[in-house]
Amino acid sequence: MFKKIVRVGILMMLVLTLTFGSAGTQFVRASSIAIPVQTTMSLGDVYGVPWNGSYDPSTWDASNLYFLDFETTATTFGELQAEYESKLGYKTVILARIGTVPTLLAPTLVGPPSIGTYIKPDPSDLLSDHYSGPGSVHLAIFKAPATSENIRLTLFGYVNDDGKSCVLWSLDGSRNHNVAEKCGGGAELVCTVKLVEKNLKYDCDGGYDWLGEQIVNDPKWLAWADKFANMNGNK
Questions:
Q1: pTM of the predicted model, to two decimals?
Q2: Gap between the Cα atoms of 14 and 10, Å rounded
């Protein structure tokens, strides 16, 4: 009888060991699984005109309206705005649409979907704080207000994957088309420096102010830009 009890005890110990040993192995494997990158669907209504300052969509000029939608890994509105500006080639004002998800009472909707309310988010605001639907943001995108400054010449600062900088110029403010040829493949636009009257003013993406400051504080850049603008009629 005693031997039988011992055998049962040993068998129970083996069962427990195998059970917890397997669970431990499964835990280790599960912890090694890569976590997928979070993405958001960005739905952009591009109006192609300066914003009139109103949050009422019925007052906006929609004669040039088109849509620019894409999936993004951006987490803040500032990052997403930079993506749109890179694709559009100009500075923007963005408004985020909120309150667009209709109330659900399966299997029918209760009332029509609302057109929503628009807000002007801070660049540091998280996209997830203002989702217009599950995992998506809906934006109204306008051109930034036109400036009355006399911009005589524009410099574009690029940075390569290896961290080296490259500067190209434009008399009319249009983006360069020969970036890969002049600066190498993978060059990313990070700074725009404008010659206004006799001063250089920079606008750089976060973390790249060093390049803008390097340009505006170099008297050789200012002298060259002033001379070149004069030679080409931009006095």
A1: 0.47
A2: 6
In total, the chain counts a number of residues equal to 235
* 39 close to 72: Cβ distance less than 8 angstroms: yes
Q: Are 99 and 81 in contact (CB under 8 A)?
A: no
- Reduced to 3 states (helix: H, G, I; strand: E, B; else coil), residue 197 is coil
Query: Domains of the chain by range and CATH?
Result: 40-143 (3.10.20.90), 151-231 (no CATH)
Q: Can you spell out the DSSP letters for 18-80?
A: HHHHHHHHHHHHHHTSPPPPP-EEEEEEEEEEE--S-S-GGGS--TT-EEEEEEE---BHHHH
Distances (CA, A) of 99 to 22, 124, 229: 48, 20, 49
Q: In which band, very low, low, confident or very high, does the pLDDT at 100 lie, cut at 50, 70 and 90?
A: low
pLDDT at position 68 is 94
Q: Is the pLDDT of residue 199 over 80?
A: yes
Q: Take residue 173 and report the two structure tokens written for it.
A: 């403010």
Residue 2: enclosing H or E segment and its boundaries? helix 2-31
pLDDT digits (tens, 9 = 90+) for 118-138: 999 888 889 988 888 788 899
